[in-house]
Amino acid sequence: MGSSTRKKKEKKKDFQKPKYKVGKTKPKASNHTDTSFKSKGIVLGHQSLSTDAPDADQQFKHSLSLASSSRSDKQRREALAYLTSQLSADSSANPVGTGALLTKVIPLVSDSSTPVRSQLLKLLRTLPEEEVKFSVEKVIMYVRAGMTHLSSDISNDSLGVLEWLLDVANDELIVCPGGWVKTLSTFCAMMGWVLSSSTGGWTAGARAGLKATDAQTLGRQITALSRFLEAGFRAETAQDTQQSEYWANLHRLPRLPNAFDYLNLSGERRDEEGEMYSNREARQQVFHRRFLEPVSKGIERAKKEGGAAGRAATLLDQILQQGISDYEPSTAMDTQDLLDLW
Question: What is the average pLDDT value for the chain, to the nearest integer?
Fold first, then answer.
């Protein structure tokens, strides 16, 4: 009997909840392992400790490399912010030069991140204007690609870069190779103002642009086109120069890096779109022949819509009338017509 009672009590212990007294530690399990010991050894891997920090030029180049090649949106934005702060404090703190910097960062015009594009525009506004003028042809190629991007946000931000370019180098923009005709073609394609030249097949509709455009966005696009046409149709004024300056400019070696670029001595043969139109009459002629009809029809449609687009179209109409009022189209066959016949 005693043995049976003892076995019953032992089985009963498995189902009883233990009662612990206050302040008494919980009993350790039978399989407890003591891990309270601490290691006092210090192991150092292969490390290089140096007291010399990288100088400002190396940090600038490193940030420029991150801005142009990093896969992280945050890292690109922070790198552009560092470059902006350095150039804002001292515009001469650029060890690579404005041309090399623009070559690295200007592809970010079509970046997929909105904060990166906003920071890029802030960086561009810190660059010296007299040095930006030599890189206009390179910059405008990426701006045109951004303007015709399928994303509306990228297209609108590209207009901001174009407006900055018109502020700092409008004369260089309209006379660089492709700066006049290709940019006008980009504007027309972006706003759906391109008409089909063929008699059959598909033709462009009233608003057959690359993407759907609201009235506010269309108004901004028309305003940017107005500024571009105003710069291209600006009357050329003769500057009064002294006789000594005249002979000095005539016989002195040119200081510009592309002084004879308009002659196209070593480049490929340019077509009408890639040509340089250095005088107002040439720009008026090609605009009258290729863009006057689609732009005029686009202005009339925008006026009928009213709102921001209608007000911008009214301003564009005034600039257009002033720009081509003194142009008289010639009935003679020009060089481009002869090339087309060939």
Answer: 81
